[in-house]
Amino acid sequence: AALAAGIKALDKSVADATETRKEENAEYKWTMASNKAAKELIGIAKNRMNQFYNPKLFKPAPKRELSAEDRIFVNNGGTPPPTEAPGGIAGTGITPVLAQLAAHIARRDADLVAPPPPPETWDAYAKKGQEHSGVVAMLDMLVADLDKQMTEADVEEKESQKEYEAFMEDSKTKRSADAQLIAEKEGNKAQLETDLQKTSQEHKAAMKEAMGKAEQLRDLHLECDWLMSNFDARKEARAGEVESLKKAKAVLSGADFALVQKASARRSQLRGAATQ
Questions:
Q1: Which conformational region is residue 94 in: left (phi greater than 0), alpha (psi within -120 to 50 degrees), or beta?
Q2: How far is CA 86 from CA 92, 93, 103, in A?
Q3: Euclidean distance between CA atoms 170 and 160, whole angstroms
Q4: Do 39 and 141 touch, CB atoms closer than 8 A?
Q5: What is the pLDDT of residues 161-198, one digit of tens each?
C-alpha cells in the first residue's frame, strides 16, 4: 500500500513538474521573442534617427522584389503595383505581440532621472548631433540590457531543462524500481497464499487421520478392557467347553460315563490324600 501510494504521489509530482516546465518554457519563448522584437524596434528607431541626424549611417529599406508577371508588366510600360503598407507596431512590420514590452520600455524611460539643466549661460546650447548621440547611447544601453536578459533567460532555460530531465530520469528509475518491487511482493504474496492453502489442506488431512487413529486406539482400549474384565469368566467358560468336549468324546467312544465319573472322583480323592 505504501509503495502504491508512493508511485501515485510520484506520478503527481512528475505531472506537476511537466506542467511547470511547460509554463517556464512558454515564458522563456515569450521573453526571447519580446526582447528580439524590442531590439528590432530600437534598431528601426536608430535607423530613422540616422536618416535625419547621420545620413551616412542610414540604411534604406530593401527594394521590393517584383514577381515575374509584375516585371513583364513594368517592362511593357506598365505601372508597378503599389507597395503594401507595413503592419505591426507603428508601421514597422513587427508583430504587435510585444506591445506590452514596448510599453514597459516606455515606462522605464519615463522613470529615468534626467540630469539637472546647465546654468543659464551661453554654454547651455547643444548641437543636435550631441542630442542624437545621447539618445543613441541610451538605445544602445537598452539593447545591451535586452541582450543581458536574453543571455540570462537562455542560461536559466538550459538549467531548468537540465534539472527537469534529471528529475524525470530519476523519477523513471524510482518508479520502475518501485513497480518491480510491488510485482515481486505480489508474487511472493500469491506464493505464500498458495503455500498456506496447501498447508491448511495438509493440516486438515493430518487432523482427520489423527482422529481416525484416536478412534481406533479408543476402540482397541475398549476391547482390551472388555477382555480383561471378562477374562476369568471366559476362562471358566472355555474350561467348561473343554470338559464338555471330553465328555462328548467319551460318549462317542462307547465308554460308560458313570464309570468315568467314578474314576474321576477316585483320582480326585487320591490326589487329596496325597496332598495331606
A1: beta
A2: 6, 5, 21
A3: 15
A4: no
A5: 999 999 999 999 998 888 888 888 888 888 899 899 99
